[in-house]
Amino acid sequence: MIDNNDNHWTTATGVTAGTDSRGGARTKQDTPLSEVFHALTDRLRKEYNIDKGVLVLRNDEARQLAAVSTWHRGIARDGLRLNLPVDASLFEKVAEQGHVYTEDFCESFSGNFFERKLLLDDDSRSFVLQPLKSDGRVLGLLGYSSRKPMAFVTFEEGALDDICDRLGSIIEKLVYHQ
Which of 13, 48, 106, 157 has its CA 20 to 30 A from that of 128? Predict the structure, then answer.
């Protein structure tokens, strides 16, 4: 499990992120957002049988989604900036609703072609989309898929809400207040 207390969380690779005494987001040694995502994914991978992951940023004013980092069976890819269509977008629907979305029947994936390719493999059996919020605004999404059915049930129960809220605060700091 991830070390988690009132002020920080530490990932398996030692990346520490959290809030300072004023509640502001911080990362240890100004770690890039993609490294925080990769470290978090590496840590969660065994517990949730994660095969594929994607970090998506959202600009609700401009109605834009952008995939900025991916993870596939241990291989991380960052430096990515893939603008995603919002038409027929499951990602945008989840962001608008602001609630965790899990699915255990990937064959009926209701997102668009790009979202399917970023999130699912041919043998994926379950997936989750977790909104990343700061001050009630959805600033991004964390998406994971697995070949194991029902791999992400605990996400619906709030198992990662605190960590995802802190990641949302980091996004707020690193992306929107640079």
Answer: 13
Place of tokens 């059915």: 149
Helix (H, G, I), strand (E, B) or coil at 69: strand
**In terms of CATH, what superfamily is 30-176?**
GAF domain (3.30.450.40)
pTM listed for this prediction: 0.81
Query: What is d(CA 139, CA 124) in angstroms, rounded to the nearest whole number?
Result: 26
CB atoms within 10 A of CB 59: 13
Give strand ranges (E) for 32-153. Answer: 50-59, 64-72, 75-77, 82-84, 101-103, 126-134, 137-146
CB 61 within 8 A of CB 43: no
143 has which bridge partners?
54, 129
The tens digit of pLDDT for each residue in 18-55 reads 333 333 334 444 568 889 999 999 999 989 999 999 99
Give the full edge-to-edge strand order of the sheet including 8-10: 3-4, 8-10, 16-19, 25-27
